């Protein structure tokens, strides 16, 4: 360490303490731009919003805005948002896990594994407006899959109540980035399942089902839960896909907030801040659980 | 593996692959249908000939390049310095770089609109140029988690301390060390972060739309609301761009040094 020489010289030379006092802030200068940037463009804007949520138009502190979040329209927006996020996260996690297990453990050719991982890397980043276009072209009223199902199989999904602009349409679209994200994150955990555990279980006379129930599921459980909450946060904050798919009509929190920022549709800026605060709290909690579960999961990955 | 489990593996894989390939095929097929009765690339031609496509796409490419430059300028010296001198600060910096994954983009941009309005001390939003700068800053924040991780992983594979000391002995200053010693050594990691940033930024909708900038994302949304076949062509083009960025990252990762010279 270059610094460890400083205290030694300090005891000899009377000038040294001055130098060390001068050096300390210089140390910090190296990271100062980063911290100034983070403070100005990440932390202060967010803290400002949070503070705004607890103020009324006159600038006095109040809980009015938080209480006003319970008005039927906003409460419904939170409810639908949470439902969409939970359903797309749980389905995405289950299907993603199944695919990861199939690719890693299922005895498929090994090139399929790297192809799947590469594709997952692409698809987990293919969200937003273009994704909505794809699903409209596929499952919209005149979409290719809709027409094929109708003309060849005689199934008219729209007369059965399906719509790409509905709850399930949105879930189906979100799965296009949720499943790949699950595959990308969970594959290392599935890789961490050691072959010896399977052999040990077999030696002890375990059936395949017992091996899964007593070894695989308990080991993967924390990673699975952790990634599921991460997928939840991922869906909860998504704006562009939902907006391009359904327009401003769908009553979910990010779209409400989008409309509020555009034109103060709630007629109360501070209520808008409260809406944003609700989003931060929910995604923040989800990420907190992710970190906790991930810590638990790392025990098995050494 | 037993025969039964292999059957299930193929089944799961087959169903999953169908779900992922079908929308791409359908979108591609749809994008070729602009001319009545036959397949053609008319939708693509009309997209590429649209002056709005050209201007918004160029705008987003320029914004992406500035975002990458800002990200590199911000992240490389910080990650280097944390590794060299302030390892105690690493958890704090890592936590900050992960915050953009916790705070949704729409909330960050809402904060900007509230904080940097025309009457504030930092009136970014007072001018169009200032708003462009703010958009670059916002994108750099969105890309921060990916950029930091990429660079930090790159730094792990080189011996930062020895390189620094050697350079200092030869009389190099800090700028020289970072620009001519550290940056070239982590260039591949930086480029991976750069391409990922590019993929995220190029079609971003929320921030660009709320800051009212003429970027590619809002253009896409606008086309989607107003025409039939062009959106599919644009979706295919966007997918190709994302795929291109990810492939470049994959190719680059083959050139990256695999093992750490010194674990630290």
Structure description:
The complex is a heterodimer of chains A (302) and B (264). The longest helix of chain A has 34 residues, at 72-105. With 302 residues, chain A is mainly alpha-helical. Chain A has 2 domains: 5-53, no CATH class; 69-298, MetI-like fold. The relative contact order of chain A is 0.12. In chain A, helix 6 (110-123) packs across helix 9 (167-191) and helix 11 packs antiparallel against helix 14. Chain A has helices spanning 5-12, 16-29, 32-53, 64-68, 72-105, 110-123, 129-139, 144-152, 167-191, 195-203, 208-236, 240-246, 253-263, 269-298. Chain B has 264 residues and is an all-alpha fold. Chain B has one domain: Orthogonal Bundle (MetI-like fold), CATH 1.10.3720.10. Helices cover 77% and strands 0% of the residues of chain B. In chain B, helix 3 (51-84) packs antiparallel against helix 9 (187-202) and helix 4 (90-102) packs across helix 6. The two termini of chain B are 40 Å apart. The model of chain B is unreliable at 260-264 (pLDDT under 50). The chains are: A mainly alpha (302), B mainly alpha (264). The interface between A and B is large, with 80 and 81 residues.
Q: DSSP strand (E) fraction of chain B?
A: under 5%
Number of domains of chain B: 1
Instruction: Write down the CATH topology of chain B.
Output: MetI-like fold
Q: Uncertain spans of chain B, ≥5 residues at pLDDT below 50?
A: 260-264
Give the uncertain stretches of chain A in residue-range form.
1-21
CATH homologous superfamily descriptor of the largest domain in chain A: MetI-like
Mean pLDDT of chain B: 89
> Nearest-angstrom radius of gyration of chain A?
26 Å
CATH fourth-tier homologous superfamily of chain B: MetI-like
Number of helices of chain B: 12
Q: What structural class do helix, strand and pairing data of chain B support?
A: mainly alpha
- Determine the fraction of residues in helical runs of chain A and give it as a percent range: over 70%
Instruction: Give the integer mean of the pLDDT values of chain A.
Output: 85
Reading off the top of the CATH hierarchy, the class of the largest domain in chain A is best stated as Mainly Alpha
Query: Biggest interface, which chains?
Result: A-B, 80 and 81 residues
In helices, the fraction of residues of chain B equals over 70%
Q: Please name the CATH topology of the largest domain in chain A.
A: MetI-like fold
* Main pleated sheet of chain B: none
